[in-house]
Design brief:
The chain is 45% helix and 13% strand. By secondary structure, the chain is α/β, with parallel strands linked by helices. The strands form two sheets. Strands 5-4-1-6-7-8 form a six-stranded parallel β-sheet, with helices on both faces.
């Protein structure tokens, strides 16, 4: 059966989110998370909000993130970092209405802007796939807000090439749960065997896509170690960079014809 749709992971696959200043391999985004949280707290203090010392606020945020992570393990549930941030603030008596939160949250995300970089040939590759008639989309596990990622995609010329975008922060499940893949497939109107998924992780991306009945494509990333990945996961395709994808898909389809 010929493929009709190609879906992509975001971080590590289309855009790198990599903090070169991080020294915490277990939590590579903790530094930018705390720095962004500090920027948000600074913005609140400018308005006259009284807050405890930063060390206490950091500890509160770490604990809220830990609780959120543990709660999401059962059932692979999605979620956003904004909930732990608001919970940490509520713990010291600071409850913000939606209008105020909409104003201050942007200060947090500016730190994420500093760690984004594009992969080689991303726009040209997606444009070529669209020209071939493939439906394109994105499925991303993310703890950050969808509007942040949409802005990054737009800044790098990808937003119009990915009309379907499914972010785990806004859905009940995250990869590798098959439901998040089915959500995207249903929206595109294609069957699992008619779709391929491209990602930089064997355990979450390739295994998740294959368990949903899709073709699993691994794209190697310099920031994604594969040593801890399950040994029983074998990608249908392995590529080094995005421009390798169109010929690899053509070869796969020829072999399946």
């Amino acid at each position: 059966m010929m493929l009709k749709a190609i879906l992509f992971d975001l971080g590590g696959t289309l855009l790198h989110y990599h903090d070169p200043e991080s020294t915490d391999n277990a939590r590579p985004f903790r530094r930018v998370t705390l720095a962004g949280f500090d920027d948000l707290l600074d913005a609140l203090e400018v308005t006259g909000t009284a807050l405890p010392p930063r060390a206490e606020m950091h500890a509160r945020l770490d604990e809220q993130i830990r609780q959120s992570y543990l709660a999401g393990l059962d059932g692979l549930r999605g979620g956003s970092v904004e909930a732990p941030m608001r919970a940490a603030l509520a713990g010291v008596g600071v409850t913000l209405d939606e209008a105020t939160w909409a104003e201050v949250r942007r200060h947090f995300y500016r730190r994420i802007d500093e760690i984004v970089s594009p992969r080689v040939g991303m726009v040209e590759t997606l444009a070529a796939l669209r020209e071939r008639g493939y439906k394109l989309g994105l499925i991303s596990n993310t703890y950050w807000a969808a509007d942040l990622h949409d802005r990054h995609l737009e800044e790098h010329g990808l937003l119009d090439l990915l009309p379907l975008r499914v972010y785990s922060c806004d859905t009940p499940y995250r990869k590798p749960h098959p439901a998040i893949f089915r959500t995207a497939l249903d929206a595109l109107g294609v069957q699992p065997e008619e779709a391929a998924y491209v990602g930089d992780r064997l355990d979450v991306d390739v295994a998740g896509a294959q368990s949903a009945g899709m073709v699993g494509v691994l794209i190697r990333s310099p920031y994604q170690p594969q040593g801890s990945a399950p040994a029983d996961v074998t990608p249908d395709i392995i590529i080094d960079e995005l421009p390798d994808l169109p010929p690899a898909l053509a070869a796969l389809e020829k072999s399946r014809a």
